[in-house]
Amino acid sequence: MIALALDGLRRAIFAISIVAIFVLFVGPIMILGVTSVRPASGAFYIWRGTNFTLNNFVEVLHQSQVLEAMWNSFVLSTLATILSLGITVGSGYMLSRFGGWIQRSWFATIYVFRTVPYISWVLPLYLVNTRLGIYDSYLGLLLPHIAVHVCFFSWLMKGFFDGVNPSMEYAALIDGCTRWGAFCRVALPAAMPGIAALAILCWLSTWNEFLFALILSGKRTPLITSTMAQFVTETGTEWNLMSATAVLAMLPALLVTIFGQKYVIRGLRM
Amino acid sequence: MGMENKLARALLIGGAFGAVCSSTAAQAETALSICYINHPVQVANVAILQKWAIKQGVKLTKTVTSYTVYLPKITQMLTSGTNDQCDIIWNNDDWGQDLAHYLERLDDVPNARKVEVGQLEPFHTADGKTTAVSMTTTAGILFYRTDLIPEAELPKTWDDLVKISQTLQSEKKVKWGYVGGMSYTNTFFSFWWTLWNNNCDIYAPAYERDNKKLAADGWKPMIYSPCQVQTAEFWWDALNGKKISPLGMTTYSRDEANAIFQAGDAAFTVADTTFLGTFNNPERSSVAGKVGIAPFPVGPMSDGVRTWIDVWGWSIPKTLPSDRKTAAKKLLGAMLGDSDGQIEQWKQTGAPPPNTDVWPTLEKNDLTWRRLRMILFKPDHVHAAYYFRNWATVHKVYSDTLIRAMKGKREDIAATLKASSDAIRAGAVAND
Amino acid sequence: MIVRSTKLGLDEKERFMLFLIAPAAIVLACFEIIPILIGMNASFRDWSLVNPQRTWVGLKQYVAVFTDPVFLKIVLPNTFLLMTASVGLSLAFGLALASLLNRPFFGRAVVRTIILLPLTIAPVITATMIRWSFNDQFGVITNFLSYLGLADIGWLSDRWPSFALVIMTDIWIWTPWFTIILLAALQGLPPEPFEAARIDAATPWCIFRRITMPMLRPVIIVCVLIRAIDAFRTFDQVWILTGGGPARSTEVFSVYTYVLAFVDLDIGRGAAAAGVGAIIMLFVGGVLYKLVNRSVEVSR
Predict the structure, then answer these.
(1) Rounded to whole angstroms, how far apart are CA atoms A120 and C39?
(2) What's the confidence (pLDDT) of residue A1?
(3) Which residues are CB-neighbours of B429 under 8 A, at least 6 positions away?
(4) Which one has a higher pLDDT value, B4 or A101?
(5) DSSP string spanning B414-431?
(6) DSSP 8-state code for residue B152
(7) Is the pLDDT of residue A100 over 50?
(8) Would you say B410 and B369 are in contact if contact means Cβ atoms under 8 Å apart?
(9) Chains contacting C (3+ CB pairs below 8 angstroms)
(10) Window 55-84 of A, Cβ < 8 Å to C
């Protein structure tokens, strides 16, 4: 009897938490969604009046370079994800598996530079980019985005490799594998679920990144976030247009999340 | 066959030659890049420039930058001497002095000086040359609901404003009397318009903007003078006592204030003149057709209405090669000489034409213009900024102080204001 | 391999180590370390963005930041409060959600996607939306709350409610981040210890505490440290929701730095403030590492 009651209680808690998740996670998105189909006169008082319109989307798609910006952001996010993961996986592995002065100084470097806030170095970064002649180009956006991820990802990768038992790699080394072989064939697959999760996070954070986009992109390579920021003007925010753009920008992000999740699961089964 | 062949060859060569010529001609065509923010007035003025660019064979590239990073980005561009990003930039009186020595002098642009007296000074170099030409004049103005308040009964004083508001509120005609921006950078739409209409200012002597004169007077802050305390008390009462404004107003930017006014929940607001179009646009506002403009109500110590007007301008970086400088100046000159284009800009956005020579035309046949001119340009003016390096810092200190006073007790207002006096003085003195 | 020099006395293993970090190190050096050094150079100088005189002033800017009462009495406590609350609560929610999603149930894939929704919106947009939703006049949520009969709260205009709102927004944005990483870590755990525990009829709570937590420890430590460093410089949410107001009472570290660098255009002082933040975080990070390490150890 008590067991049954406990089970019922557990079910109730489970149901409540699922409902809470829906309300808390979907609710704010709904507010944004509703705003995006309200006319300019109802963008703030969204609960007043019942007129809805798709004009915001039409206007946004006509007025500004939203599609071009979305394409740029898409290319940038994808390249940044592949390259960031590509260059940090080795660095994380090194941090996890080896010791000595190289490991210690690399870890110290990562840690020290991670603590410096962005705002103190985006303006110098603009300077570096103009000097190198890569301001407002794919390369000029890509490299800083990768650089930002280096510290953070190396560190997380270290965490993932720490969770993988190294004995298999030692066995592989004894069996005559090179270090590179042991890393690629043994350690990497084991850390795959974490890396896949990181890929989604990396893509999304690049897609949604604001400050670099504002400072480092110009007329040639508009990004989706810097395009959104143009709806904030000195005399106010065109919130209906901004939320329509945000909703448009959510679609690729959602696709990546859903598709990426499948990949995470597949990565598990490997 | 031979003949045809020759002809064909001749055509081919001729065509190729032509192509080469036209491609070099295309290269010789000047390309100018214009950097600005997405604001209706700037967009309208860029449209005029675009029209003339086509006529002058200039390829005009538009770079819209977000307002949030516009100033740091442009400043960084100018100070580092990069000259391949912007040929014409938007310039604002607030930072006109900071940028002046990185900018080309524009006195030789035709009609450059055709502005109201005292308007170009914020853009002047040390020797009195201007570094900007006007694109429009920005100013704040009182908006009111014509369906609720007859023109004859418009508030003349702060007391009137409170009384009319309270009456309308008690009759349930409107939820709030006055709504305006109050958070940092929106100080104009609450604290400052009342300050300037109570014979008061930030530094003594009031309304002076000449740094030499202000320095000679020791940059004396007026933050705890009776006229300022009165202003603060007026707002404290509006929020906490007489409740003609919502309590959350201390956090409002123009977005919130405009949203509430446009939804029909407030009887009065102060905003940029360019909002006249927005407020009366049925697609944007539910009070469209019921919004009028009026002079500011004045405080007990006032000796007359005072408005603030300031120029928004275009400037050209000093580091440009001379051919692009010349082309950019020619383009700006064409805009300033285009009276039809400027009248169109006024009609579209409510932004006054940059060239004052155009004004008499509007004066003759535009009713709204006449009213705007009466309200805005006839009274005495004040510049809405001071022109020293740390002005933005002082503005923030001022804003924080006044909001702190709003959140505290009424009897503590004077003390709260006095506590910031040193910081406000220090902000100005640091430049000497 | 890339590193040929054996004069440095590098053995094969060390060369392999350098090879692993080389690409990351190069990008890091060019696009992070060099700009940071340029920025830090400014912190020792009198450097206004509009008038770069660049006079060397030594530690003057640092002294000015360290002796600023606002920085010490308001900014730092606020920053640490935000950091602790945001990281602690998002970690707790993240762990709970990850554990929930780690067991099979009907509709799990949908719930998992829903939890990731906050990550698909730019934080700036989220913060703006929250700001409008909590407006005292037209906010959807404030109107809903007062419809439910709850007392009006100055969500944005009073110090503590607005600070709570900043923290809640931060938690909303970052909980999915913890969830997805911890879920990945959970799914990567070997099944054997859990099976053994189940045979011993251990309670779920006991399994969680004695087996799951210790095994997740490396990932949790990294997550907490990284998020703590990031939370220390949270900017968008605070700037958009409160602007540090009312009257600087909710100002946090990066708003302080931002105002110096981007509003006052005082690059020197701004860089010094950033440097001070980095120094504090270096120290706090070390302490945090020990704390987290021990607390996970103790719970075992």
Answers:
(1) 6
(2) 62
(3) B219
(4) A101
(5) HHHHHHTHHHHHHHHHTT
(6) G
(7) yes
(8) no
(9) A, B
(10) none
**pLDDT reading at A49 higher than 90:** no
pLDDT for C230: 86
Residues pairing with B60 in the sheet: B32
**Cβ-Cβ contacts under 8 Å, C117 against chain A:** 25-26, 29, 254
Confidence of residue B11 (pLDDT cuts 50, 70, 90): very low
pLDDT, tens digit (0-9, with 9 covering 90-100), for A176-232 = 888 888 888 888 888 887 888 888 889 999 999 888 888 888 778 888 888 888 887
Confidence bin at A102 (pLDDT 50/70/90): confident
All chains having 3 or more CB pairs closer than 8 angstroms to chain B: A, C
- The answer to whether the beta carbons of residues B272 and B192 sit under 8 Å apart is no
A65-229, CATH topology level: MetI-like fold (1.10.3720)
| A120–C226 CB contact, under 8 Å | no
Chain B segment 211-270 residues within 8 A of A by beta carbon are 253-256, 258-260, 262-263
Q: Which of C39, C180, C274 sits opposite A201 (nearest CB)?
A: C180
In B, minimum Cα distance to C243 occurs at: B184
Chain C interface disruption, residue of A105, A116, A168, most C CBs within 10 A: A116
Contact between chains at B392 and C265 (C-beta distance less than 8 A): yes
Please spell the DSSP secondary structure of C144-183, one letter per residue.
HHHHTTPPP--TTTSHHHHHHHHHHHHHHHHHHHHHHHHH
- B and C: number of Cβ contacts within 8 A: 81
**If you measure CA to CA, which chain B residue comes closest to A216?**
B73
CA nearest to C267, candidates C41, C92, C29, C22:
C41
DSSP assignment letter at A184: I
B248 touches chain C (CB under 8 A): yes
Chain A closest-CA separation from residue B210 CA (Å): 27
Of C100, C138, C257, the CB nearest to A120: C257
Q: Which of C20, C32, C129 sits opposite A31 (nearest CB)?
A: C129
Each domain of chain B, given as residue ranges in start order, spans 29-137+310-376, 192-249+388-432
Could you tell me the sign of the dihedral formed by the alpha carbons of C94, C96, A25, A197, in that order? positive
Taking the C-alpha atoms of residue C149 and residue C165, their distance in angstroms, rounded to an integer, is 20
Asked whether the beta carbons of residue B407 and residue C158 sit closer than 8 angstroms, the reply is yes
Say yes or no: A85 contacts chain C, CB-CB below 8 A: no
Residue owning tokens 């940038």: A76
The rounded distance, in Å, linking the Cα atoms of A92 and A98 is 10
- ipTM for the predicted complex: 0.86
In chain C, the domains with their CATH numbers are 1-42 (no CATH), 59-299 (1.10.3720.10)
Find the chain A residues whose C-beta atoms sit closer than 8 A to any C-beta of B.
Answer: 39-41, 43-45, 48-49, 123, 126-127, 130, 135-136, 214-215, 218-219, 226, 229-237, 239
**Cβ of C193: how many Cβ atoms within 10 Å?**
15
pLDDT digits 0-9 by tens, B394-429: 999 999 999 999 999 999 999 999 999 999 999 888
- The CATH class of B29-137+310-376 is alpha beta
More confident residue, A45 or B20: A45
Q: How confident is the model over C183-232, as pLDDT tens digits? A: 888 887 888 888 888 888 888 888 888 888 888 887 888 888 888 888 98
| Owner of token pair 């570096």 | A128
- Residue B25 is predicted with a pLDDT of 42
The three-state secondary structure class of C186 is helix
Buried b (16+ CB within 10 A) or exposed e, B183-212: bbbbbbbbbbbbbbbbbbbbbbebbbbebe
Q: Write the DSSP assignment of B193-234 as a string of letters.
A: HHHHTTT--SEESTT---HHHHHHTT-EE-TTSHHHHHHHHH
Q: Distances in Å between the alpha carbon of C248 and those of B408, C61, C153, C245?
A: 14, 21, 19, 4
What is the spatial distance between Cα C139 and Cα C219, in angstroms, rounded to a whole number? 39
